[in-house]
UniProtKB/TrEMBL annotation:
Protein name: 3-hydroxyacyl-CoA dehydrogenase
UniProt superkingdom: Bacteria
Pathway the protein contributes to: Lipid metabolism; butanoate metabolism
Keyword tags: NAD, Oxidoreductase
Site (Important for catalytic activity): H140
Domain 3-hydroxyacyl-CoA dehydrogenase NAD binding: residue ranges: 4-183
Coiled coil: none
A Pfam family recorded for this sequence: 3HCDH
Domain 3-hydroxyacyl-CoA dehydrogenase C-terminal positions: 186-281
Length: 288
């Protein structure tokens, strides 16, 4: 039974996972190597909780949990010492993820399940670097975590059935639906999302239509709830670029990143988190 969840990495996904976990009744520790990042995550989580309570999205008990059942730290050994489940949410770099799990293995209980929140990478490869690959799995959350209903669950070669069932029960407690996906680069959603988004960027570069026009066409013509350029801004253009580069390397030419994506990342236009991507944003838009 999972009662305590440690989330490693307090960026966009990590803080979102931590928030969803704590309002779902879990005890949570959120860790990052940067004290500034941890402080920013705490401000985000408490601000989101306040706005969500004000709008009636969460109950008073859930709001209270945000201040009573979550701990923030820069100390990884402390974060995982007594945990039942570790969810890693660091950058999409396989070497970095492996290094994180090497440290986690040294300090977490033998019984703990280890999960990577990767959107593209192999849980078999990452899990092979751990002591107990049968207790390793991928949980692919979606941004913003508190609003998106899906978690893709991807087992590695050695992942046990028991581990899968525990993760499904955690997802249910978080109010999520799950899809079990066979391991393959990009899984289901990232492969589709990257292709659509990349083509939208190429069309923008070619002058086919404006960002607003492309997104409106996809939303009203294909019934997507969000346009592909809006989605890329939400994910983060640097994150999207890393995903595209990995898929290009593993799956071939159709995943070659758009030159426009490369240009925007070099310019620091990373989407919502930087205030500017294909659109411009103010700070209030980054919460709800």
């Amino acid at each position: 039974m999972v009662e305590h969840i440690a989330v490693i990495g307090s960026g966009t996904m990590g803080r979102g996972i931590a928030y969803q976990a704590v309002i779902s009744g879990f005890n949570v520790t959120l860790q990052d190597i940067s004290s500034e990042a941890v402080d920013n995550a705490q401000s985000y989580i408490e601000g989101l909780a306040a706005k969500s309570r004000e709008k009636g999205y969460i109950q008073q008990e859930q709001y209270d949990n945000v201040f009573q059942k979550i701990h923030y730290t820069t100390d990884l050994p402390e974060a995982v010492k007594y945990t039942d489940l570790v969810i890693e949410a660091v950058l999409e770099k396989v070497d970095l993820k492996m290094e994180v799990f090497k440290q986690v293995n040294e300090h977490s209980p033998e019984s703990a399940i280890l999960a990577t929140n990767t959107s593209t990478m192999s849980p078999t490869e990452i899990g092979a670097s751990t002591k107990n690959p049968e207790k390793f799995i991928a949980m692919h959350f979606f941004n913003p975590v508190h609003r998106m209903k899906l978690i893709e669950i991807i087992r590695g070669l050695d992942t046990s059935d028991e581990t899968v069932e525990v993760i499904k029960s955690v997802a249910i407690q978080m109010g999520k639906e799950t899809v079990e996906v066979n391991e393959f680069p990009g899984f289901v959603t990232s492969r589709m999302n990257c292709v659509i988004g990349n083509e939208a960027m190429n069309m923008l570069m070619e002058g086919v239509a404006s960002p607003e026009g492309i997104d409106k066409a996809i939303k009203l013509g294909l019934n997507h709830p969000m346009g592909p350029l809006e989605m890329a801004d939400l994910v983060g253009l640097d994150t999207r670029l890393r995903n595209m580069e990995y898929l290009h390397q593993t799956l071939g030419e159709k995943y070659r990143p758009s030159p426009l994506l490369l240009k925007y990342v070099k310019a620091g236009r990373l989407g919502k988190k930087s205030g500017r991507g294909f659109y411009q944003y103010d700070r209030e838009e980054t919460l709800l």
